[in-house]
Amino acid sequence: MVADTEYYDLLGIQPNATALEIKKAYRKAAIRLHPDKNPDDPSAAARFQEVGEAYQVLSNDSLREKYDKFGKQESIPTEGFEDPSEFFNMIFGGEAFKDWIGELSLWSEMTKQAELSGFEDESKESKDNKEDKNEGANFGAEGTTSSAAGPQSKSSKLYLQHGEASGETSLTAEEKEKQHKEEEEKRRKAELEKFEEECLQKKIETRNELSKKLVDKLSLFTETDMADDVAESFRQKLQYEAESLKMESFGLQILHTLGSIYKTKAKIFLKKQTFLGSIGGFWWSVKEKGGMVRDTFKTVSSALDAQSTMQEYAQMQEDNEYHAKKEAEGEEKGVNTAEAQEKARKEKEALEEKLHDLQQEKSEASKSGTQEKVPTKHTPEEIAEMEKYLTGKVLAAVWSGSKLEIQGTARGVCDNILYDDSVPIEKRVARAKALRIIGDVFSKMTRTEVEDEEARIFEELVAEASQKRHKKKAHTEPEDSSKN
C-alpha cells in the first residue's frame, strides 16, 4: 500500500505502474489538459501544472519512493518543481537518447555565459542611466539648471553647492568607478574563458565516451562475419530500439538528424577507400559543410525570430500598462457623482474627437516624427495568443540550437571511430558499413497517427508558430504587390 494515490489518480495509472507507463500516461494527460487545448476552461492551467508535478515526482525513483511512503508533502523537491535545464533535456529526447547524443548543455551553458558576461548588470545599469536621464530632463525643464547639465542633475546640484571642489570629488569618484568596472570586466573575462575551456574539455570527454558506446553498438555487426543474415539481425535490433526512441519528444527529428549524419559520414569514408574515391569523398565533404552552414544560418535566424517576437510581446505588455495607468488615474479622480460622470463623458467625447483628428494626421505625423502615438490596447485573448506564439518561437529557437549541438556531437563521434589510425583500416571500413545501416534505419523511421498524437506535445507549439509566420507572410504579399 502507498500513503497517497493522488498523483497516480491524476495520471490515471496504478501505484505499481512502470516508468514507461508513467511517461505514456503523462503525455496523454498533458495533451488532454493542456491550456491551449482548453481555452474555455479557467482551471485547465492549474490541472496541467498538477499533472506536471505528478510526473516529475513519479518519474524520479527517489521522489517516488518518498511519495509512496510519506505522501505528497514529503516528496516535493527542495529546489522546487521547475528546472530549466532538466526541462529542455526532457523536451529534446530526454534520457532515452543519452547513449547516442549525451546530455544537451545548450541551456545551462547559455545561462552561465550570460551570468559571467554580466548581461543582467548591464541591463540594470542601462535602465538606471535611462531613469537618471529622465530625472535630469525634468530638472532642466523646471529651469533650475542649464539644459546641458540636465542629465546630470545630482552632480549639478553638488557643483552649485560646493563649487569646483565638489567637481573634483565627483571626478575622483568617476575614476574610481571606472577602475572598478575595468577590474570587474577583467575578472568576468577570466572566469568566462575558464568556463569556455571547461565546456570544451567536457565536450571532448563526452564525445570520447559516446564513441566507446557507439563502437560497442557497432560491434554487434563488426565482430561477426558480417553476412547478410547478421546484417538483417543487426537491422532488426536497431529497428526495435528506434521504435521506442521515436516516441520521445522530438524523438523522430533526432533520429532523422542522426540518420542523415551517419549515412553521410559512412559514405564519405567508404568513398575515400575506393579507386578515385577521393574525388567522390571530397564532393560529399563539400556537401556536408554546405549543410552545416545552412543549419547554422537557420539557428541564427530562429534566435533572431524569437528575439523579435519577445520584443513584440514586451511592447504589447507596455501598451496595456499605459492604458492601465490611465484608467487608474481616472479612478483616482473619484468620479462618483452624476455631475462628475457627465463631465467625464464630455471629456471622453472631446478626447475621442481629438483622437479622430490625430488619426487623420497620422501619415504626416509619422513622416515628421513629432506626433506622439497612443499605444494600442490589447485584449486578454490577444495577449494569450501572443504568449502561445512566443512559446513556440522560443522552443523553435532552442530546438535549432539543440539540433546544431546534436549534429556537432554526432559528427565528432563519427570522426573519432572512423579516422582513428590506431584501428586497422579493415575494422574502420566495417564500422562505416555498420554506421550506414544505422543511418538507413533511423532515417526511415515514421510515426502512425496515433503515435504522433501521443508524442507531439511541444512539437505542436513549434509547428504552429512556424505556420503562423507563413500565414502572416502570405497575408502581406498581396499588399506589397498592389503597391508595385
Automatic annotation (TrEMBL):
<feature type="compositionally biased region" description="Basic and acidic residues">
    <location>
        <begin position="173"/>
        <end position="191"/>
    </location>
</feature>
<feature type="compositionally biased region" description="Basic and acidic residues">
    <location>
        <begin position="322"/>
        <end position="365"/>
    </location>
</feature>
<dbReference type="InterPro" id="IPR052814">
    <property type="entry name" value="Peroxisomal_DnaJ"/>
</dbReference>
<dbReference type="GO" id="GO:0005829">
    <property type="term" value="C:cytosol"/>
</dbReference>
<feature type="domain" description="J">
    <location>
        <begin position="6"/>
        <end position="71"/>
    </location>
</feature>
<dbReference type="Pfam" id="PF14308">
    <property type="entry name" value="DnaJ-X"/>
</dbReference>
<dbReference type="InterPro" id="IPR036869">
    <property type="entry name" value="J_dom_sf"/>
</dbReference>
<feature type="region of interest" description="Disordered">
    <location>
        <begin position="117"/>
        <end position="191"/>
    </location>
</feature>
<feature type="compositionally biased region" description="Polar residues">
    <location>
        <begin position="143"/>
        <end position="158"/>
    </location>
</feature>
<dbReference type="GO" id="GO:0016558">
    <property type="term" value="P:protein import into peroxisome matrix"/>
</dbReference>
<feature type="compositionally biased region" description="Basic and acidic residues">
    <location>
        <begin position="124"/>
        <end position="135"/>
    </location>
</feature>
<keyword id="KW-0143">Chaperone</keyword>
<dbReference type="InterPro" id="IPR001623">
    <property type="entry name" value="DnaJ_domain"/>
</dbReference>
<dbReference type="Pfam" id="PF00226">
    <property type="entry name" value="DnaJ"/>
</dbReference>
<feature type="region of interest" description="Disordered">
    <location>
        <begin position="465"/>
        <end position="484"/>
    </location>
</feature>
<dbReference type="InterPro" id="IPR026894">
    <property type="entry name" value="DnaJ_X"/>
</dbReference>
<protein>
    <recommendedName>
        <fullName>J domain-containing protein</fullName>
    </recommendedName>
</protein>
<feature type="compositionally biased region" description="Basic and acidic residues">
    <location>
        <begin position="475"/>
        <end position="484"/>
    </location>
</feature>
<dbReference type="InterPro" id="IPR018253">
    <property type="entry name" value="DnaJ_domain_CS"/>
</dbReference>
<feature type="region of interest" description="Disordered">
    <location>
        <begin position="322"/>
        <end position="378"/>
    </location>
</feature>
